[in-house]
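Incident log, structure service

09:12 report received: a user says their structure output differs between two submissions of the same chain.
09:20 pulled the input from the user's history:
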Amino acid sequence: MSESAHPNTVRVQQALAAAGSAAQVRRLAESTRTAVEAAAALGVGVGQIANSLVFAADGEPVLVLTSGAHRADVGRLAEVLGAAKIERATPELVRTATGFPIGGVAPVGHPAPLRTLVDTALAAYPVVWAAGGTPDTVFSTTFDELLRLTGGRPAEVD
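09:34 re-ran on a clean worker, output below:
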């Protein structure tokens, strides 16, 4: 990572290192704002991209890391979380809860720990890619490491 790295990327790299991960945040020439863009830029399948989605579960932010090949089913999320109401978080809630703007939400480096679900479909891939804090940064990891890094729990989310 260069000395001129974006502060969000630095925060993600520091969080990874503090958690004992060897993962390195990489900046790509292409946008990684969407799973399709990230997969194309990395030359991998869209299912290997861990989308970081934030929902409000009964008003509380929840991070859901989904395979890029899936869409999160809010009914299933409500069931898994035991919530009466699930809705997509507003951009303001996303930034407040994670410290990142939509399109670059990393699974680590948040101001405070978030309740997190990790899509079990990601376990099918030996390597998964997650956002590095900006729309053009990523890092490689594994399903098991995502669980460890986030304190998340595995769940079927689609």
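09:41 both user submissions now match this output. Likely a transient worker issue. Closing.
09:42 reviewer note: The chain has five helices and eight strands. The two ends are 34 Å apart (CA to CA).
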